[in-house]
Design a protein that fits this description.
single chain, 2 domains, six-stranded parallel β-sheet, mainly beta, 2% helix
Length: 380
């Protein structure tokens, strides 16, 4: 088949159809307007704008090869979409991509009412500083999904791993910080430049791990990449808490990267990079005795010192010499502020003089599990 060129605007009326067979190539040097039905099994190259108010049915390829194009696809499905020709591709209606989004040269910019949605079996190319999605990019399904996204100035791709959920369509978008974010548990310094947001368009997300690029941290005052973790928050400015670092994850992000380890990642909204809180075990202390008659109120109870642990996953249990539980709490705040004063948490009565065994289970502020058993003496 010979390629077909059109050097003027192409219009398909509402009572007409255009069938493009396999191995056919059509080049449209001007705008392409469709009010009818297009069945594309070949290759279409468009240099101008696309306005599709009819039906676009595709088992073929669509190439956007113009500079600064406006594209309206009427929420139809494109089998393979190629971004070429540089400039910006302004998307003003939803577009579904069945097989592949190939980002060669040009920026896709969805308007506030438009969405780029990669279908269940679809994939994207890696993207680059010259070609990515500036806005939300949505992916259907579970497993591992790569998002070649960026801000107006920077390519900032994201990858989600081990996604589980039901009927999922999940989106990711990268942003510039315009105010300084606030550190939270397990973090002591945050990226001041960029963050990422997550949007569940449809379905429910049960679990995922997120991978972020770390090559930009040279502008954030971070000291070493060994100390970088993923941090998350439900508010754009934080506080951002550490999600740790899973070094077993392999990502296709074309830069240095860091992956989270915390299951809570699946249910958060905003993510950024952080230096993890440097746990100082020299500050950790659990007293081994308490006395009701002590003159210092802190000696009348057993508390946990050191500010080393997260609230999540915390438990502190005390058993008597017969193995019966006399005190139990899952509140880290309780143990750091009030502690155990020797009273039975069920009966409200004071325990007798003697030795008791405690079991502490927790996660450190950079998400390492910790367990310790020790003794407590009531000496009055």
């Amino acid at each position: 088949m010979f390629p077909v060129f059109s050097y003027s605007q192409v219009y398909v009326s509402d009572d007409a159809s255009l069938n493009i067979s396999t191995k056919s190539e059509l080049f449209f040097e001007d705008n392409f307007i469709n009010d009818g039905v297009i069945n594309n099994q070949g290759d279409i190259y468009v240099f101008g704008d696309i306005e599709n108010t009819g039906q676009y049915q595709s088992g073929g390829k669509l190439y956007l090869v113009g500079y600064n194009q406006t594209v309206s696809m009427n929420a139809d499905t494109v089998n393979e979409l190629f971004i070429q020709g540089s400039g910006n591709k302004y998307l003003i209606s939803d577009i579904y991509i069945a097989t592949d989004l190939s980002l060669d040269d040009g920026i896709i910019i969805p308007t506030s009412q438009a969405k780029v949605i990669i279908m269940n079996d679809g994939t994207t190319s890696i993207g680059s500083d010259f070609s990515y999605v500036l806005g939300n990019l949505y992916m259907q399904g579970t497993g591992t999904k790569y998002f070649p996204i960026g801000t107006a100035t920077t390519f900032l791709p994201v990858e989600l791993h081990n996604i589980t959920g039901d009927s999922l369509t999940i989106g990711m978008k990268s942003h510039d910080f315009y105010s300084a974010p606030i550190p939270g548990k397990g973090t002591r310094l945050l990226s001041q430049t960029n963050y990422w947001s997550q949007d569940i368009l449809r379905g429910s997300l049960e679990y995922a791990q997120i991978t972020l690029p770390t090559y930009l941290v040279g502008n954030t005052g971070f000291y070493t990449e060994d100390s970088i973790v993923v941090a998350m928050s439900n508010n754009v400015l934080g506080p951002y808490r550490s999600q740790g670092k899973d070094e077993s994850i392999t990502s296709v992000i074309p830069y240095e990267y860091v992956s989270s380890i915390d299951i809570d990642t699946a249910n958060r909204i905003f993510y950024t990079l952080a230096m993890f809180y440097d746990v100082n075990w020299n500050l950790f202390y659990v007293p081994n005795a308490l006395s009701h008659n002590a003159t210092d109120i802190d000696d009348q109870r057993v508390k946990i010192y050191g500010n080393l642990f997260q609230e999540k996953g915390f438990s502190f249990t005390v058993k008597n010499q017969w193995g019966n539980v006399v005190y139990k709490t899952s509140s880290l705040i309780e143990m750091e502020t009030n502690g155990w004063d020797g009273y039975n948490y069920k009966t409200g009565e004071r325990e007798i003089i003697g030795q008791y065994i405690y079991i502490l289970q927790a996660f450190t502020k950079h998400n390492e599990p910790y367990t310790k058993a020790g003794s407590i003496w009531i000496i009055d």
